[in-house]
């Protein structure tokens, strides 16, 4: 099964946005859209002649602002977000095991994969997993803010994501090297941070990273918890 | 039918490279790979556990050097190129109407679409058309070098590409605005250069562009005519 999403990129924050198209070519879902690209993304929906059913977020991002609220407003789509992220204006609050349906029989399964943030989820659709900042290609998201936890991330990746079939395609929330896609099988065997490492080894590796505070975090997180809309809107 | 390719991007030249995956998830074809990314692209083939059947070129590029020769060398794939581009070391020289087969029953149809260069082709696969620099999203390639011709490009787009079904997805050779994909239907109605324009109007529009000579053309074209390999190799 090689139904791939449409992958869009934001150069400034190296963020991927995904459009998942139903097999009937009529209905779509967008994952992690970026505020400054809402018109670009809307143009893609128009060009492909799609109706947007849902805007999904993998977590409350710290490095960029979402266009979820804006896209919801202009398309009439519903916003569906992880329940543990404090994104209160979204009409659908998702928990582990929930299923989002769109188009004629498309199913997206929600996997709660905490660690990068406590509320982070991954989305599973037709042999593709959208991992947000939980699992990146040959890497993973940081775990030092927003109730992040290296122990939780380790359990999410090893226990949930690496339990998926080896051929599952991994579509990350970011990439900084021009990469597009990986597979669970490859990451299980080769991921520089997570393959063949104990939980304790992973914890010390993550603790030693000593990364600077993200520049936008104090603006982006509250904005994203309001779906990127101005507060009071 | 929404089988999409994997789309990879070169930030320096804004070039797209595409990996087409056979439905059996074993075999693949790569279109327009870029020299400096051959290891990145090879890593994608390994991660997806694919065997590369063919390296395809849409034309002899003027703005970047291909990795076709290098990928052929390391993977054992065959190089298949348009016959009118002077890419002599390629084992397969393609003409209009030719079909490239890979995997279990995948068919790529060759459309000769001259105009950006005299030899340029587009590739049609499962409702997707890979248009190289003939048709871009809301634009088209330039027609002022390498035996380019605005009249030929007009005929190629209007006569061949716009004759494809409206839902055909258009995957261009370049994009400069973060866009990924369009459709024939949308381009037919809205393309800023080609929709609702006569051949004469299009010719004067292209003649008026007055673009600078591409910086790399004197290096890139001869290099690409040798599949990106050093001459004498
Ligand atoms: Fe994040
Ligand atoms: Fe070109």
From TrEMBL, chains A, B:
Annotated Metallo-beta-lactamase domain residues: 14-174
GO BP term, pick one: hydrogen sulfide metabolic process
Domain of life from the UniProt record: Bacteria
Family annotation (InterPro entries): Metallo-B-lactamas (IPR001279), Mito_Persulfide_Diox (IPR051682), POD-like_MBL-fold (IPR044528), RibonucZ/Hydroxyglut_hydro (IPR036866)
GO MF term (any one): metal ion binding
Pfam families in the record: Lactamase_B (PF00753)
Sorted UniProt keywords: Hydrolase, Metal-binding
Name of the protein this chain belongs to: Zn-dependent hydrolase
Organism ancestry: Bacteria, Pseudomonadati, Pseudomonadota, Betaproteobacteria, Burkholderiales
């Amino acid at each position: 099964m090689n139904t791939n999403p449409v992958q869009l990129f934001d150069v400034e924050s190296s963020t991927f946005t995904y459009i998942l198209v139903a097999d009937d070519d009529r209905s779509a879902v967008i994952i992690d859209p970026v505020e400054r690209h809402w018109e670009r993304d809307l143009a893609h929906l128009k060009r492909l002649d799609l109706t947007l059913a849902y805007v999904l977020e993998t977590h409350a991002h710290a490095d960029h602002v979402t266009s979820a609220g804006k896209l919801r407003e202009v398309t009439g789509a519903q916003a569906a977000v992880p329940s543990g992220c404090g994104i209160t204006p979204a009409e659908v609050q998702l928990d582990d095991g929930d299923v989002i349906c769109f188009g004629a029989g498309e199913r997206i399964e929600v996997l709660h994969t905490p660690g990068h943030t406590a509320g982070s989820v991954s989305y599973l659709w037709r042999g593709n997993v959208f991992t947000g900042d939980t699992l990146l290609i040959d890497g993973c998201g940081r775990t030092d803010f927003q109730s992040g936890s290296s122990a939780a991330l380790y359990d999410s990746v090893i226990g949930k994501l690496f339990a998926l079939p080896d051929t599952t395609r991994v579509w990350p929330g970011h990439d900084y090297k021009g990469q597009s896609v990986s597979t669970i099988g490859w990451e299980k065997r080769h991921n520089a941070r997570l393959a063949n490492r104990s939980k304790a080894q992973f914890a010390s590796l993550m603790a030693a990273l000593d990364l600077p505070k993200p520049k936008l975090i104090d603006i982006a997180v509250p904005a994203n918890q309001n779906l990127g809309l101005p507060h009071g809107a």
